[in-house]
Amino acid sequence: MVLKVFFPTCCSSAESGILIGRWISEQNSAVILAVVHFPFIPGQVKQYLSQVQQVTKIKVSVLGSWSNSQQEKEESLSKFLEDLGTIFAHEPWIQISKERDSKFWSCSTLQKESNNSKEEEIILVYYDQRKVMLSQLHPPMDTTTERKADDASKLATVFDTVANSKILFMTDRYDDGPIKLTHWQSDGVEASIIVELLKQASVPACLLLTFLLSLISVVCKNRMLKYWPLSFLWSKLSTCEQLGHRLQHLQIISSSKKAQNQTQLMRKANIFVSLLIDVALGILLMSWLYRKNRIGHLADTLIPVADRVAKELQDLLQWLMGAPAGLKMNRALDQVLGRFFLYHIHLWISYIHLMSPFIEMILWYVGLSTCLGLTVALCILSDIIALLTFHIYCFYVYGARLYCLKVYGLSSLWRLFRGKKWNVLRQRVDSCSYDLDQLFIGTLLFTILLFLLPTTALYYLVFTLLRLLVVVVQGLIHLLVDLIDSLPLYSIILRLCRSYRLAAGVKFRVLEQMHGKPLRLLMQINPLSYGSVVQMYSLPTYSCYPKDSWTSLCKKLFLGELIYPWKHKGEKQD
Amino acid sequence: TSAVWLAAYGLFALCENSIVLSAAIFITLIGLIVYLHFVKVDQESLLIIGSLGIQVTSSYASGKESTTFIEMSQVKDVVINEAIHMQKVIYYLCILIRDPQDPLGVSEVVPLFQSSKPRLDCLVEVYKSCQEILAQREMAPKSS
What is the pTM of this model? Predict the structure, then answer.
């Protein structure tokens, strides 16, 4: 079988020595982790390797020898290297040698107990040690399930080996130890001051945050707030939902136990970055709003806007009370409905005028809460829209109920008209013999309802359209909030800047070959595409989109049933 | 095509405002760049290494390269498939991926050379070389 040797690119300029790494016998491949230079004592090398093995749980052993000769090939050196093979017994013993000016390396193996005399083919695969160590292969291997060794992906074992041998890379050449190694960090261990400082500062910060959060949650769970109608109010306002969601996020970040595996770590990082950006944008918005007393302007324009909306509604009702679009309405019913709604609007306008002196102050204080995040600001906007158009919602409910009653009445009387009845027990339509007076009254009522149908239907149609408009606007705002909530910003930035961390696979490039020398390949990391990054790491949100399909929505509209556009997770389904 | 579009937009927009003209040119250029980067495939290549796996690369006109690597343990076989499209029969080369649960089944079929669509004689040559390499991996027994 073909023997594959994974060689780190950083070791290609190293001095001669012996190779240490891991031998994967099922795949007939050797992963080389470092080169140990002369002089060394074999006993110490074996001791060091057993120490490393204990810590990393990977079978690290001496695999072969490496000679990088600056001068012409020396016969004694090659004999010495072969003798080393007898000291460190490893099967097969790999010998790689590189001449000074040539790009091509020669690689051979020594097998002591082999029966076949055939020359084994060798493939040299170069890999960048640092990138392979830091990267994570997607989809992540499930370590809890029982899998046979040959089922496991070959590359995953290679990546695993390098990632787990971090301890091997901790000694650099400036350390005074019995063994001198060459690997990617042998010029000095990498560390950055900022990261270390942050790590030190994060522990007390986390403790403080947990304490504050527990206080807030105790306050929120206070029994007084659970009584109706306050609990009803909290569940309807989307701002409270958003705040609760963010609180949950903060709890996840500030919990003191470390992330178990990579996915949890990424999720924590995503939540943290998303929260940070949210608060930053919110503060930006707040500074823009308060700069030129824009809040005052906003409050000043709010009342005239509400007035204008009410005036438009009044005009609409006047139009409906006349002959809208050339349709002829039933005058009496028209007048009744129109006057009822007009009075309603009158009540609403007086209520707004009552509130007007306080609007500016309320808005000012509410605007302060935008510093909690841009999502909170958008939720507040959505709630304000809902409150301002509350009368449209009321009208919609009235119109819908009237229409619904009418449709049910009509359908039941239509059945009577034909001589049938709805059997509640059997849930079907049965024939029934009615008395004459029942039939008479029934037909009379049916005719009345039928001729009053266009009027009610028109009012219902108009108010439903208005309500749908408001629902669409609110829906767009919620969509935006959801987008900001669930976008994994940290993962996207990671994919942009350090694309080798998220790997979908590898790609090989064939380097120059010469006949007689082993095949050389360069292994590079193939990063994940942006779409799969977003899909894999997007955070869960609290709202679920309407489960009604378009047909059931149309059916509900036709029958006059009320539409509830959003159901939040955790609400009882009725 | 871009010259035709530019001329058409130019003629259309000259009657109105010059900003429309420049906007049309801008949009056409952007569209061309997007097309070259995401749609037009310059070259497709297949690399088979007997013990490692199969690598499929397609390079686009703007220089972007997209690669997929399939490990040898996942590959069941490489075959030429026939498909009936409208009034003719087309041949394409594809890789059969092994199903982890069912050792005899195929979980996925990956078609190759989708944009260059070589004809049957080309495909047969590629197929023969692939089969040579794949046959070697069956032949070599696992030695410890």
Answer: 0.75
